[in-house]
Design a protein that fits this description.
221 residues, mainly alpha, Methane Monooxygenase Hydroxylase, Chain G, domain 1, 6 helices, elongated
């Protein structure tokens, strides 16, 4: 395979990661909108559209396998392809987390909220920003941007801890709120996992660019 054609196929993989990342970001945003509006119809559409995210992931995985078999790439090219396979897996799981939020909305139906939805939307916004920045960092092979994504996870974790503490306090104060509070805890858990997987993508950015797979130490970013 000519080198130029091979590089075009690598670029196509990166474009595919961008497309899949955008689909996941939209799924998270729509799932959270369904929660805010208590819109079960919107939530069901998020659930149904998860198959489209999986289809893009399946295509990218097959493209990676094909390139590995045909070209036997070395060094950085090999790391990029291997990283795409890992990133696709993380994006698929992020899509599952968005679907999970949508399923919670369906389960809740008209269940009254035990507290105003203030921290959860902020947490969702930060998690989707991490996702968007992580995918772009990988496409640009920007290690500094990758480390910044890792740093942002600390704020998401702080919000998760705050939401958890608030909801536990609500449940202790009124045992009748245990079930609706648990539903919101699961929303927060899904968002926290999305942020964690964005950090995984950032780590893959550093690996593909440098050959080292770090455990993000982000104290300086």
């Amino acid at each position: 395979m000519p080198r130029e054609q091979f590089q075009r196929q690598i670029a196509a993989l990166q474009d595919g990661v961008l497309e899949m990342g955008s689909m996941v970001e939209r799924a998270v945003e729509r799932a959270m909108q369904a929660l805010m509006d208590r819109d079960v119809v919107l939530a069901r559409s998020v659930i149904d559209e998860d198959k489209d995210i999986n289809a893009v992931g399946y295509h990218l995985q097959n493209a990676c396998i094909s390139l590995l078999a045909q070209q036997a790439p070395m060094a950085r090219d090999l790391r990029v392809i291997v990283s795409v396979t890992a990133i696709v897996s993380d994006l698929e799981r992020m899509g599952d987390h968005a679907e999970g939020i949508a399923r919670i909305v369906v389960t809740m139906q008209d269940e009254p909220l035990v507290k105003p939805l203030i921290d959860l939307p902020i947490m969702a916004s930060k998690a989707t920003e991490m996702l968007r920045n992580a995918v772009q960092a990988f496409v640009d092979q920007d290690t500094e941007a990758g480390y910044r994504v890792g740093g942002a996870d600390d704020e998401v974790d702080r919000l998760y801890d705050q939401i958890y503490a608030d909801l536990i306090q609500v449940m202790v104060g009124d045992p009748a709120t245990i079930e609706p509070s648990t539903h919101l805890l699961w929303v927060a858990h899904n968002l926290e996992r999305i942020a964690d997987r964005a950090t995984n993508i950032a780590e893959r950015t550093v690996y593909s660019a440098t050959g080292m797979l770090p455990q993000m130490d982000v104290s300086s970013y």
